[in-house]
User: What shape does this take?
Amino acid sequence: NVTVRGFTVKSHTGTRGITNRDDAAAAYQPVTGIRVLNNVVTKFTNGVDFRRARGEITGNQVYGNSTRGMYLREYPPASPGGFTVLNNVLSGNGAGGSQYDLVLEDVYTGTVVMSNTITGGLTEACILVNNEAGSVELTGNTLNACGEGVLILQNGGTAIIQQVKVERNTITGGGIGVRVRRTAGTSSLRQ
Assistant: This one.
């Protein structure tokens, strides 16, 4: 179990603000019980970056990161459980195109994103659910000025299963509210 609480983490050239990446091994080490609470994370490539991990990300301010505010990723077949992403404020992350405030890519069953406030840059999706997603919940979030509020995307893979529950979110001031899209890979099951 690891807790990161109450820090201001700031850089102008760093790649990852808070992460489980082991640069010596050039790999992400599995971590369970991670808690990232009440931090300020700014001016990195990726503000909060976890793979092969589970835990809680709550009450953080994540802004001004050049590619992604939060990036949570790994493959459901090795599932240790999901992340809870709760009551965070994200803004000004990414510069459009394939850069986003919150990315959930090949995430574990049971990931919940709830009661977050995200202000985008009008050219990207505020929340991207990419490829496999087992029982992901996006609930009660406030999304503003997003090119797409929520983008559920398949851009590769075979027989992808995407189970995403989108409920009680407020999406304002953008181009598209919620979009489900496939750009590559074989047809898949979406629920």
In short: The mean pLDDT is 88. DSSP finds no helices and 23 strands in the chain.
